[in-house]
Amino acid sequence: VSKELADNAPLTTRDLEIDGHTLMRELQLTPGRIVGELLVELLALVTEEPALNDKDTLLQRARELVGQRT
Q: CA 64, CA 51: separation in Å to the nearest integer?
């Protein structure tokens, strides 16, 4: 945890540069489990690489994740 704090890594989905409302609007999703799952997967991504916590980068990754689910 101390390394993540030193790197300013997001620790919760609230620390992401996007939220569920943004995901629903940009990806035409309806409220539901998938939105939360996407946020958790995005958090895992930026926990490993904090520099990826950027709106455009996260939206692109979310699009890829949604595409993998269909």
A: 18
For 2-26, the pLDDT digits (tens) are 555 555 778 999 999 999 999 999 9
Provide Rg for the chain, Cα atoms. 12
HEC states along the chain?
CHHHHHCCCCCCHHHCCCCHHHHHHHHCCCCCHHHHHHHHHHHHHHHHCHHHCCHHHHHHHHHHHHHHHC
Round to whole Å and give the CA distance between 25 and 12. Answer: 21
Q: Enter the pTM of the model.
A: 0.86
